[in-house]
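Morning F.,

Quick status update on the modeling queue. The single chain you submitted on Monday has been processed. Sequence for confirmation:
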Amino acid sequence: MSSSKKSRKRQRQTASSSNAPDVEEQELESMLFGGLGSQTTSTLSSTLTSNNNKESAGKKNTDSSAGPPPGNLFWVDHGAGTEGGSDDDGSDDDDNIVSKNKHAKTSGRAWKDDADEDLQVNLAAVNRTRKLRKTQEESVVNGADYQERLREQFNRANAHTGASSWAAVPDEPSSRSGSGSDDDDDDDDDDDNSKKGATKNILQSTASVIGTGQGGPLPPSELRVLRLKDANAMAPSGAAIQSVQFMRRTAGGASTPLLLTAGYDKTLRLFSIDGKKNKKVQSVFVRDFPIHHAEFAPTSDEIILSSRRSHFYVYNLQAAKVTKIPQIVGRDEKSLESFTMSPDGKYITFLGNDGYAVMVDRKTKRWLFDVKMNGSIRTCSYGADGTSMYTSGSDGQVYLWDLRTRQCVDRHTDEGCVRATALASSPSGSGMYACGADSGVVNLYKTSIGDRGGAMSKQRGPLAASLRLQRTPFKSIMSLTTKADTLKFNHDGQILAIASQMKKDSLRLVHANTGTVFANWPTGQTPLRYVTDVDFSPSSGLFAIGNDRGKVLLYRLLHYART
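Structure tokens below.
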């Protein structure tokens, strides 16, 4: 009995000691609450508890178990639906998490700003936002509508680049039948489903075949175009652009094409075109020499500059040196403003007086020989191999010259042309060429007239075969209403660019094989202005447009490779 009494006494002492405050706990309370004692602590705890109960009672849809247990200053919040610190199997929490994840995948926005409804945006006030209008009379929209239109414009402009593919929500995997399948079987089913999905996507669309930007046959119905940063945005010209040209070969192992711009501001500028920054490489100022035309030499690191002067300049890229070439010996031309270089880099052809085409050696810059046509020469273009040359002028006739024999092998009258203003030959070697007239009509001819000159010369004689041979074009393009002064084929001869600088926004791209004009671009909102010159990159992936404001617009042709 004595032992049992002693054990009961020890238990009562232990319980009383556990209820008594510890010395360290009292010191901590005095440090935190300024020595107010345990009474202040209990009072503060009860005050916090009552305040929390009042706040929770004033809220809607609030669980009564969300507040802390009375008498506890700190507690662990287990989330909605749990009481105090109780633990359960967690199945309800897992269901809530799954439902939240499903809602996050199916919901359109992760966050919505109510202030967007009160925002008012005037689309007609700024030029950059006018393209977002659906009608010409529309001007003011709210913030939500403005945001939606910006999203649609971005998706429309980048539909073929996949710029917004990172934000697409992946499809939900299909539910499997049979709950007793093993993990290995599930993995096999996943592989089979992924293979079937990939095959289905390939068969549903041809985007992976024709949209890779690797060239091939060009569809005549639509041309996919994406605007990039202006080619000369870092150094715009101070006058109208007169010459725009990409370098046809890679200089110094550069991975980006080199572009030159020149104009009446007497400055030649070179840019490294990457579509994002378009850094300026170099600029050369030539005193008292408004540049009318500039071209890269096809086989050397030289740039030929011409103006309305009797001399011209040569700029060497490697040496960064400008060399003046005085008047051509044997010729009395006062102006050498127009010239063309042969694709093989052998000749420089200046358009001289009285119908003369002055042939100058590209290496020595010396006169070699002349070829003469009737009337005055206005334009010329070389064939793909550089051994033939087309010329035309004031008499409306097209001459074909064989530069190996230095003779005119054939000629014909351009149908409906009174005075020729532009001429371009396809670089693909197909024999197609285009003739532009001062009326704006551009005629396309598919077969070279020289291919039939021999047969006709046997029937009608060598002289009669070259006199006013009538030839019908396979297509006449009448999209321009003023003088067609710019014609340019791309590298494979599938696109022909025609332009006139006499009228605003006069630029059209033609599908050369069918002679149809692309209807989807350029549009009425394309900021072309007065187009002065155009050029394609070596692989036709980039298209540069010079205008009267000194800007060079840059566009990406998505059908072709980047450069």
